[in-house]
């Protein structure tokens, strides 16, 4: 089956056409600057989609898969788009205001432009639906949690699911027999504890703002600081949340950039501000891994993935070195090899009590596979 996978951002649209039988990417690309004043920029997502369909020419497309960050309380698996399901997902856009609206625009545009092709939504939150109550409940009045659907939903689920399956395969053990921690560290970043094949804890929360320090997101912060910030900058509440999402994290701490590679170059030249930002960044990852080892009462595998996790040996070395007290060790030579082109491999040190991997995440392939599965059940 040829599945066209769309990943819509607020001003960008990434796409891949994947043949699920051979797992090969037939075509891929990105349309960016959507809705910006830039010259030749597409006016909106609908125009961007038509540009993609034009590029596809006569290529056969059997189905379309859409990455949707938030599925809210009602969607715990990939779902066929109908007028009803689309309306339901649109009604929870406020749970991921930076991500869901763009995905929904994309789904609507596909339905208008290619009405005969089935669309499937694959949710980043779905994999975390197995989290126990003790992990997903915030300590608010229970009525607030229930009435307003306030809870930890997590994100990056497609990646955590794919990577944990991949490492189980590489360990030649069923995932159900392993305790796995996946560190998905890209611009957005989250850690997930997977026990017996199920997500039991993850660092992102109600929205993808909670948890680790990210490229531009603050991650964990005392909620009282939100009021302080709003007053200090004379911001409204929504402006403050946008600030925490877009101006904080590594960008905020360094005042320079959110791009890890560029920051690494500055660090190598002795930049002290960047060194401090890295300390905060690594510390938070170590803190979450330590917590998740405790939550699962042990760990068999730690996997690093995404732009930073899979390409920056110094990050993995710094994090794993801090886990020495658990008897976890990294192989410096093998680790150094995974430094630029997202390859998959084992980097466990000699005598380590847990195995360590650098894994290339394949979110699009995983989405295409889920789309095929849903449609074959429906037929
Ligand atoms: P997201 O998908 O959340 O936008 P990515 O997973 O693409 O983010 O990660 C982007 C980050 O990874 C950037 O900070 C970038 O500097 C860093 N990075 C490091 N090495 C590479 C690489 N070889 N290719 C892409 N990004 C890389």
Describe the 3D structure:
With 379 residues, the chain is an alpha/beta fold. The protein folds into two domains: 2-153, ATPase, nucleotide binding domain (Nucleotidyltransferase, domain 5, 2-Layer Sandwich), CATH 3.30.420; 173-358, Nucleotidyltransferase, domain 5 (2-Layer Sandwich). The chain has helices at residues 45-56, 83-90, 100-113, 133-136, 142-147, 157-171, 223-233, 237-246, 249-254, 260-268, 272-296, 306-309, 313-321, 332-337, 363-378; strands spanning 2-8, 13-19, 24-31, 63-68, 79-80, 119-123, 179-185, 189-195, 198-202, 301-305, 345-346, 355-359. Strands 3-2-1-4-6-5 form a six-stranded mixed sheet, sandwiched between helices. It has a six-stranded mixed sheet with strand order 9-8-7-10-12-11, sandwiched between helices. The model has no long low-confidence stretch (mean pLDDT 94). Bound molecules: adenosine-5'-diphosphate. Residues 186-188, 215, 259-261, 306-308, 311-312, 340 line the site of adenosine-5'-diphosphate. Adenosine-5'-diphosphate binds at residues 186-188, 215, 259-261, 306-308, 311-312, 340.
């Amino acid at each position: 089956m040829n599945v066209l996978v769309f990943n819509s951002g607020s001003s960008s649209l990434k796409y891949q056409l994947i043949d699920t039988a051979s797992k090969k990417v037939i075509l891929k690309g990105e349309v960016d600057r959507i809705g910006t004043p830039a010259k030749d920029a597409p006016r909106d997502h609908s125009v961007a989609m038509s540009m993609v369909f034009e590029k596809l020419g006569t290529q056969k497309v059997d189905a379309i898969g859409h990455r949707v960050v938030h599925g809210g309380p009602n969607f715990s698996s990939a779902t066929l788009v109908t007028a009803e399901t689309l309306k339901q997902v649109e009604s929870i856009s406020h749970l991921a205001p930076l991500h869901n609206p763009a995905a929904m625009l994309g789904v609507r545009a596909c339905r208008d432009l290619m009405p005969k092709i089935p669309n499937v939504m694959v949710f980043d939150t779905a994999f975390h639906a197995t989290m126990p109550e003790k992990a997903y409940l915030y300590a608010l009045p229970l009525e607030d949690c229930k009435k307003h659907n306030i809870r930890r939903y997590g994100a990056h689920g497609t990646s955590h699911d794919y990577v944990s399956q991949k490492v189980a395969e590489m360990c030649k053990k069923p995932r159900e027999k392993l305790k796995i921690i996946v560190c998905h560290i890209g611009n957005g970043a989250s850690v997930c504890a997977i026990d017996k094949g199920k997500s039991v804890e993850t660092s992102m929360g109600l929205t993808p703002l909670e948890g680790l320090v990210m490229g531009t997101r603050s991650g964990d912060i005392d909620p009282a600081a939100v009021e302080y910030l709003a007053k200090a900058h004379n911001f409204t509440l929504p402006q403050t949340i946008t600030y925490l999402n877009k101006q904080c994290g590594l960008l905020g701490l360094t005042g320079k950039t959110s791009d890890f590679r560029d920051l690494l170059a500055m660090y190598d030249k002795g930049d002290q501000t960047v060194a401090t930002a890295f300390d905060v960044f690594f510390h938070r990852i170590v803190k979450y891994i330590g917590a998740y080892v405790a939550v699962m009462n042990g760990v068999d595998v730690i996997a690093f993935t995404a732009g930073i996790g899979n390409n920056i040996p110094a990050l993995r070395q710094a994090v794993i070195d801090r886990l020495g007290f658990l008897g976890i060790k990294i192989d410096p030579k093998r680790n150094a090899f995974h430094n630029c082109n997202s390859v998959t491999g084992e980097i466990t040190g000699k005598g380590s009590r847990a195995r360590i991997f650098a894994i290339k995440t394949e979110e699009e392939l995983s989405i295409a596979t889920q789309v095929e599965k849903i449609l074959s059940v429906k037929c």
